[in-house]
Structure formats: structure tokens, C-alpha cells
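Q: I have 254 residues here and want to know how they pack in 3D. Can you give me a structure?
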Amino acid sequence: MEIKIARYKHGGKVAPLFPLNKENTFSFNEHGKNAHLNQLALNSINPIIDSEKVLYYPIQTDELVFYIKENDIQKYYSDYGFIQEDIDVNSNRFKNTQLRINFFDSASPSSQALIYQLNLNTQGNEYQRGPGGSLYSVSALPVIFNIETPFKNIRKKTNSLGYGIPFFKTPVNYEIPLKIYVSFSLLNALDGKQHRLYSSNVPLNVSNLYEYLYVTYTLNTLNGKYFYTLDSSNRLINTNGLKKEISLNILNVS
């Protein structure tokens, strides 16, 4: 028995319905015909993967604060070439300077995959304002970013972007608890330079670079709750009540 597989149009081109060769013409006996076609149909259908995502929230933490430093000394916007006029007119280069946070599934650059990327633009947050609410002058304006819980002081405008980390509810290729490796960079919109950051005072060289480059987060779940924790071991992370204070030094590799 000879069966000709139907063809269909796709993008203006004629393509086979199933990935067959021999010009899509096959010979079957009556016994094997149905089994063979059923297998072709199964092979042409992608498996169904549960791609639903949920937000993992930090536990016992209402706020994350990131201090940009060099040799453990706080940096100010004037250190990066900004002038007072940038602050006064809220220039694009001022407000578009940002902290970039990358979340990877591995600490190995040769095999890691990017899970999530977060960009925090200049915020004008409470750490950058004086008692009257005005921004500090450019030479006294610290480069600090923060992330706050959206569930506290609901009427107050908060910088809550990034408080929850989106990830799969039921991961297929990962096991929970899952360690993720987080790197940080400061992107200066004034000169286009990117400064790598790390949360340690240990001088870096080629041999220890990847040991200290990342901050480790652990995603976990319990009783239908999805959460993450930060590993502060050998990192400049301080717990102050419900606040995590993370110091990030400019990375200079010797």
C-alpha cells in the first residue's frame, strides 16, 4: 500500500507536514501502517512543559540596600563625572545610570545560563535625600540603590522592582532548593562605562575571581510558599533588623 503524506503552506513555501524523506512517499503493509503513522504524529508534537512562573520573595527581609563603593569607601555621583546641573534638571544620563543585577544558574562562565536580569535606574531614594526631602548636592549624593517590599506601607511609593524573583513554579531542568549566582555591575550613562562589582574586600586576581564575584541566593519552597535567602558567608552583607545591607566594591583585578 502506498500513502502520500499531505503538504501544507508555511511562509509562502511548501513544506512537509511530517519530517519525512523519499519525497514523503512510503510503502506500508496493512499491519504496520497505523503504528507507523501514529509514531510520526507523536514525534511531530512538542512535549508539554509546565512553564508557569511565580515570584520568590526574601524571608525576614523588607528591604535590600546596595552601597556602591571602592576599597570599601562610599562612591558619589561626582566621582563618575556628574555635575550639579545633572541633578538639578534630572538629566537622562543621571537618571539612566543603573545597577544591573544578573541571576545565573551556575558560577561557571562556560556553562551558566541567565535566569533573570534586573536593572535599577537612579532612584532618588531616601538614602540620597536630606532632612527636607531634597537630593544632596552632586558631591555628597551617594550611589545607593534599594529594593523594598511592596507589601508594607502600601500608600507609600516604593522601589519594589526586583523584590520578588520570577522563576518556575515547577522547574523541569532544576531541582529546588536551587542555588543561583548573582553578579552586579554599575552602568554609567554619562560615559557608557560598565563597572563590575563584587561584595568582598579580598583583592581579586585570576585565580580567585569567580570565588568572590557572585553573591549566592537560594530559591526554595515550603507549604506552597516560594522564597529565597542570601548567603552572607565571606560577603559584605549586613543584617540590620529586616534590612539587608549589601556593600559592592568596584572590581579591580590584579
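Q: Anything worth noting?
A: The longest strand covers residues 178-187. The chain has two domains: 2-43, 53-250.
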